[in-house]
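Weekly puzzle thread! Below is a chain. First person to post its structure in token form gets bragging rights.
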Amino acid sequence: MMWRLKTKLLFWLLPCVLAANAQTAPYRLKREITGVQATWHSMVLPNPIYQKLKPGFEDLRIFGIKGKDTVEIPYLLKQRDNQINTKEIAFKQLNQSSANNTYYYTFRPAVSGVINQINLDFKQENFDWKVTLEGSNDNQNWFTIVKDYRILSIKNQFTDYHFTRINFPDAKYAYFRIAIKNSAQMELLTTKILKTDTIKGIFQDIKYQSYNIKNDAEHKETVIDINLTDPVPVSQLSLNAQSDFDFYRPFKIDYATDSFKTDKGIKYNYMDLYTGTVSSIEKPVFSFPNTITSKLRITIQNNDNKPLRLSGLALKGCVYELIARFDDPKLRYALYYGNNKAVVPSYEIEKFENKIPANLSSLTIGEEQQNPAYTAKVTKPLFENKAWLWILMAVIIVLLGWFSFKMLRN
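Winning reply:
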């Protein structure tokens, strides 16, 4: 009686298990998701997951399982980078004058409002000037906003560097006046007054195993190789570079795409990530598109100058966040990945993103596990089956016998 009961129970449970495994079977790895208590939640992808995902995250899925039911959970993948909104402010230039080797330019915004940036473009190509920016509400009493702000332009056979953007705290005045100390005649070609708003993204500090600095005298450059602990998203680099004098050096950042073995060890293929200038004028903080890599290379062109002193560097990466809709908190949820044949999913919620609540509670993503339901189709060799071997041997014996008989008869 007990044996019949167990047999019936197995008969009913087996279809449920097969149905639950059908959708998750193509995915090799999984991570349990805990803390589901509402319809909408967010979760930040852990760093170790990036080296196991397809480059475009095509194989990332969330499944909820309860008995024989398997539900695919729709999600949005968000890159939490800084969002910068820049608005150009219309203005009228009232006058231009000079006195005591100082040139003055007065502007009046068309609409009263806050500004925090002014871009200047001069006809001169090589200069190093100090700027003072003032604000006034009556064009008579002036208040200093920034003083001795340095702007610079250098153009030669080695570089074309311009830093003529004045950044300052939010300011609201009816009039703005720029004063530039310079004994020679100058010509201001264009001016742009801007209001820039930055919505801070979510970044994490990136740990690296080591970095190696090599000053190449033959090629007149400094090469810095940075080895990260794991392949992770990187989107910001800070360089702590010093010199006894002002400097401006063209440089580039490359990231390793793959590696190959040679007689001299492992070599890497690199791809361009960022090109710019490191200088004593601007903050040495450089942002670029979020890129998943485990190795970076920085190349600084020194030309005929003494190499810079580099005392450290820092890396940051923009996190990837999943926003998912959980219709049934009672299901057992997990994150699945590791399917090379998967394509990017298409969910309707991306069309109704404005209806997703703003403040979402975070879920916990567990440690990586092997998916027990994973099934990989393996094509077996034709002759692995012994029956084929016996058939082949029989055919060979028959052919040998026939040729032997024919030779003896002749």
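Puzzle host: Confirmed. Bonus trivia for everyone else. The chain has two helices and 25 strands.
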